[in-house]
Amino acid sequence: MNVRQLVEPDRVHRTVYTDQQIFDREVTQIFERVWVYCGHQSQVPQPGDYHAFTIGRQPMFMVRGKDGQIHVLHNRCPHRGVQLVGNQKGNVGGALVCSYHAWSFQLDGKFRSTPLPHGYDGTRVGPDNPDCSVKRAARVDSYRGFVFASLSPTGPSLLEFLGEAKVAFDDMCDRSPVGEVEVVPICHRVIQQSNWKFFMENQLDALHPSVTHQSTGVAAGRIEKQIKEQTGKAPLYYHYLSAFASKFEQWDAVQTINFPRGHGILKAYMGLRPQDPDTRAHEAMLVEAYGPDRTEEYLSRGIHHVLVYPYLSVQSPLQQLRCLRPISPGKTLSEIWHFRLKGAPEAIYRRSLWYYNLVNSPATMVNADDLENWTKGQWGLESEGGDWVSFHRDHGGDSEQDGVIYSNHGTSEAVMRNQFRAWVQYMADTL
Amino acid sequence: MASTPSNGNPPAPPAHPDGTPGARLAQDIVIENAGGDAVGAQAIAPDHAARAAPSPRPVPEVARPTSGPTSGPTTGATLDTLREIEQFLYRQSELLDGKLWQDYIDLFTDDGVYWMPVTPEQTEWEGSPSIFAEDKHMMEVRMGRVTHPTAWSQAPMWVTSHVVGNVAIEAEAPGEWRVRSRFHLMELRRDTVRHFGGTYRHTLVRQAGQLKIKLQRVDMFNAQAPYDYVLQVWV
Q1: Which one, out of A167, A219, B189, B205, has a CA that is 20 to 30 A from the CA of A267?
Q2: Could you tell me which chain B residue has the CA closest to the CA of A107?
Q3: What is the average pLDDT score of chain A?
Q4: Which portions of chain A are predicted below pLDDT 70?
């Protein structure tokens, strides 16, 4: 298999979305090597608290140690392989104890004890044998409270990996007067019956909203207008939805910035600064904490979405994050989280909560149509009705500087071209 | 490796290190509780315990109608009222299954709310993540969306079947009832059937002689399970 033959500058072969062998290679060469998001530190506040997830195909969990450090471990007992934590989240107490034969481990995974230890006299089992400790993620690091792990002992550091996309976490945290967010302890999980790339491409695809989400945009715009006429002012959250029906030209006027490693930003100002008392109170808090210049810098970042390729979509102005866990070529789990700005007024949380409920809940009025597109897209690409996927829009019409591609049209398919540039590097480097 | 004796029996096991003779049968080994000391996994890690105790969830009282053959605790609701409420809930199911969205929305008071929290512990419809948290205006947005010609997700054939049961009046005030019921919902979309179930809690009021929904709270028992696709309309 030569992946370079599957990816041309302006089109890709359909099999990159459908082929099992390619997917298997993606798992081992991309997802099980890059820095993968584990969770936020506030998900495991107390020693023994754990949160389980997958990195590629590896069931993992992060657990808070007695010293406050967060460890990321494989969810597997070194004795007979039984998983050590049995829920998505919980608390294991002061030690990890296997439910099968009570091999036990410190919270950092180190071998601790077994029942009847003389049974292992003269064998290889003991605290000095690393095979008897729970296997740890090769590398763990965090940025502004967001915990990441890599199963590869070598490779770029977390900050090198994130590159400019780290602004996703800055843009969230800087909106808090204490520079921190905390997790809202609910995770919506939605299965996408499509390859993970559909989601990643869609997130910065500025042409699709007016097509895919027209029904919701129009319906919300009608009620928004009606409320305005009746009361003079409609709540901001109607605009969250009605904006989806913006004209093609409006979307074309935004810009995407496409970074190395496939990351990207959809630059569009979300207009979250109405002159209401809550917003003013929030801004006054930030000025108090950071001074007027930095406050202005923080609040005027033109960010709609930030993508951390290949699995994270962050809507930092609204503190929401979607994380992909690919399951198979045609099946992807998405985990959808929301965060609170520590120390900010309750009203600011509630304002972003409307977006979380209307757009990102399992009763979403927006992603319902995205999921339908991606399902049908997957079926189309599994067919032999054609071999290639077109990414020709504005090909040759973008600007590139120092490896960063700036679209000159919001609807440029620079986003997809850039993602596949990174994809080829990840996939081909190891061949 | 020990060779098998010529009589075909397995070789006798060696004596146990404590000196007991070799052949111990399983039934000879008596396993006793050590009398209060930690045993098993607790002995290995005495501090190994789930920290969060399950929060007790009281079983709600079932109020009985005053008239009719039953006796006992009562909200004062008459059997006629209970019947009327049951019929109301059955009609609600039919409206949803019939995709009669406007008729369904009309069941709500002007300040009515449809709310599906994520967890049973939530008490307010605003201020924490919900699956649905919609006043009547937002319900009209949802109806407008699914009936719009470019609601692409509505193109595939889909149908639902609701069953409502276990209807009980939890509390009653003049002209207002709090009603608990259970529902089961099957949905067929394209070739796939999904199942949802849970508890409805309706706050009903009487307006101009008609029962109306002030609040429909829906606690879906599988609210936090992964969703294969989404919920497009009210459950």
Answers
A1: A219
A2: B48
A3: 96
A4: 429-431
Look up tokens 């919506």; give the residue: A188
Q: Residues A201-216, buried b or exposed e (16+ Cβ, 10 A)?
A: bbbbbbbbbbebbbbb
Q: In chain B, whose CA is at the least distance from the CA of A339?
A: B129
pLDDT at residue B144 is higher than 50: yes
Cβ–Cβ under 8 Å, residues B49 and A47: no
List pLDDT tens digits, range B1-52: 344 445 555 555 555 555 555 556 766 767 666 556 777 888 888 877 655 5
A294: tokens are 């930095």
Please check whether residue A361 touches B, CB under 8 A: yes
* pLDDT given at position B2: 41
ipTM: 0.95
The DSSP code for A29 is: I
Measured between CA atoms, the residue of chain A closest to residue B41 is: A102
Among A residues 301-340, those touching chain B with beta carbons less than 8 Å apart = 333, 338
| pLDDT given at position B40 | 82
Give me the sheet containing A89-91, strands edge to edge.
Answer: A70-74, A58-64, A49-55, A89-91
Residue A312 is encoded by which pair of tokens?
Answer: 């994270």
Residue A155 in tokens: 């490779």
Placement of tokens 């609170």 in the chain: A340
Q: What would the DSSP string read from start to end of A257-311?
A: EE-GGG-EEEE--------SHHHHHHHHHHHHHHHHHHHHHHHT---SEEEETTT
- Rounded to a whole number, what is the distance in Å from the CA of A346 to chain B's nearest CA? 9
What CA–CA distances, in Å, run from A367 to A87, A182, A303, A318, B66?
28, 25, 20, 17, 49
The C-alpha atoms of residue B227 and residue B229 are separated, in whole angstroms, by 6
Exposure string over A8-42, b if 16+ CB within 10 A, otherwise e? eeebbbbbbbbbeebbebbbebbbbbbbbbbbbbb
Strands A320-328 and A255-258: unpaired
| CA distance linking residue B105 with residue B122, whole number of Å | 24
Residue of B31, B74, B156, B2 whose CA lies nearest to A369: B156
Q: What is the pLDDT of residue B73?
A: 45
Provide the angle, in degrees to the nearest 10, between the axes of the packed helices A196-203 and A414-428: 140
Query: Which of B101, B220, B229 best probes binding to A when mutated, by most A CB atoms within 10 angstroms?
Result: B229
In the block, tokens 């009980």 appear at B168
CA geometry: angle B208, B214, B219, nearest 5 deg? 145
Q: Can you tell me the mean pLDDT for B226-230?
A: 97
A299 with A280: CB under 8 angstroms? no
Distance, CA of A340 to CA of A342 (rounded, Å)? 6
* Chain B residues touching residue A368 (CB < 8 angstroms): 153, 229-230, 232
CA distance A93 to chain B (A): 4
